[in-house]
Design brief:
Radius of gyration: 20 Å
Helix content: over 70%
Largest sheet: none
CATH topology: Farnesyl Diphosphate Synthase
Oligomer: single chain
Structural class: mainly alpha
Order of helices and strands: HHHHHHHHHHHHHHH
Strand content: under 5%
CATH class: Mainly Alpha
Number of strands: 0
Number of domains: 1
Distance between the termini: 12 Å
């Protein structure tokens, strides 16, 4: 199969369009998010914290631009207004569901029961009330209620499994599996609220894509995670040669599957640039960690390095230029 090389010009042009799209989306959030939050709060003594808007917006932008909108554009589709509504509603529910775990609001048994049988749950807190209300609305509005429940249950399974990341006896193999599965099922959950669920070949392509997204997130969160006692592939085993090889293997696998898709070359090029825009950031963060953590033998030594050594700063011009070139490299990698 003849390979088409995506030029640096096309990468820059598409990234500029993405940046403009993000600015335009801010207006959508300002118009619709407060109304949704107020409706969920109605009748409850509590309210969402001020930080909820920023948290939901970040969740929503990632889900919309990397998963939902991006997949639709690949296939030549546009999201309908009710699909946008469901994506935003799920972006509110997602952080609430995470908090049920992270803040120990419910036991694991209670979270699983809530996931499978939400109507039977009897909420005892503000967080439970709004989570239940959002979940029931999602199930009512989504095309396939059982598909949403099934995917949320898979999210639960891997969210529970990820608690193993607090243990220092977790193996590197187990860390990799949790990293990929947790991210993959979160991606599929957003797919489940769309009118058009992805075909099998796309589902296979989403696995390496999602795993690399989580590795990217973990690479940027090393400072935060190491100080919270959370073990991840980048911070615990620090086998950066192996990690970089895994990264390249999955970039190649993703690109190979994308090339075989029955969509236009232009659409596939745009899709790949959007996805690899995030992957490239992860690669840069890993490369920095590889240099700055040389000789580190423990999590304690890693924490002692401080924030500047462990957090990859993407704001300066030189880094942005390196990033654009890395995106181009990944888009054309095989």
């Amino acid at each position: 199969m003849q390979r088409h090389t995506v030029s640096l010009y096309k990468v820059i042009r598409h990234l500029n369009r993405l940046r403009q799209r993000l600015k335009e989306q801010d207006e959508y959030v300002r118009l619709h998010l407060p109304t949704l939050l107020n409706a969920l709060e109605a009748g409850q003594p509590g309210q969402f914290p001020a930080s909820a808007v920023k948290r939901v917006t970040k969740y929503w932008q990632l889900a919309l631009n990397v998963v939902c909108n991006n997949l639709y554009h690949l296939a030549g589709r546009e999201l309908r207004e009710d699909e946008h509504h469901r994506i935003l509603l799920l972006s509110i529910f997602g952080p609430l569901y995470d908090d049920l775990f992270d803040d120990n609001i419910l036991s694991h048994e209670a979270i699983e029961a809530f996931t499978l049988y939400p109507e039977k749950h009897h909420p005892q807190s503000f967080e439970e009330h709004v989570a239940q209300k959002a979940y029931l609305q999602l199930l009512e509005l989504s095309p396939d209620r059982e598909l949403v429940i099934r995917h949320l249950h898979n999210v639960f399974i891997w969210q529970k499994a990820s608690l193993r990341q607090m243990s220092s006896d977790i193996s590197e193999e187990e860390l990799y599996r949790i990293t990929y599965e947790k991210s993959y099922h979160s991606v599929l959950l957003f797919c489940s609220v769309l009118d058009h669920y992805p075909a099998d070949d796309i589902l296979k392509m989403l696995y390496p894509m999602a795993g690399l997204l989580q590795l990217t997130n973990d690479a940027f969160d090393v400072y935060k995670d190491v100080n919270s006692g959370i073990h991840t592939v980048p911070n615990f085993y620090r086998n950066f040669d192996k990690l970089q090889q895994q990264f390249l293997t999955d970039v190649a696998a993703f690109n190979r599957m994308l090339r075989k898709m029955p969509f236009s070359r232009k659409a596939k090029g745009a899709y790949g640039i959007t996805i690899h825009a995030l992957h490239a950031m992860g690669w840069m963060a890993i490369a920095q960690l590889k240099i700055n953590t040389a000789g580190v033998c423990s999590m304690e030594e890693l924490a002692a390095l401080g924030r500047k050594a462990l957090v990859c700063d993407m704001d300066n011009l030189r880094q942005k230029m390196r990033w654009v070139k890395q995106v181009k490299y990944f888009v054309n990698y095989h």
